[in-house]
Amino acid sequence: MGTPLLEQLACSWLLENAATLLPPRRDMLKARRDMCETLMAEYFPRWRFSPPEGGLSFWVELPDMLATLFSARAESQGIHIGTGTRFGLEGAFDRYLRLPFTLPDEALRRAFSTLQPLWQSLAEQKENTRMRKII
To answer: Domain 20-131 maps to which CATH number in 3.40.50.2000, 3.90.1150.10, 3.60.21.10, 2.60.120.620?
Structure first.
């Protein structure tokens, strides 16, 4: 069995036109990456990240092991976020999120403004848990 003809023709056309198609796509993705970086710094100043050297996502380090809880809260708002636990065993990397920057600009802005209060409430809840006295 081979690849269907339609897919072969589409790939052939894309390869033949790569010089025309790739530069605007790269520019668009770079602008979205930069915007996502700015939004993270604005909405989540305690998150640590570096601009990705490749790929279409940020690997974000959270100040605490809250990625799974945060992802569940985001999912309740229709925002799917990959957690670091997908890349480790037995709950490893629950301090990390994988945030793609491929959505249109307005969708990224809406997502960050929706996620910020979710993160804030989770971080406050975690802080309150730490401050409880055990008797």
So the answer is: 3.90.1150.10
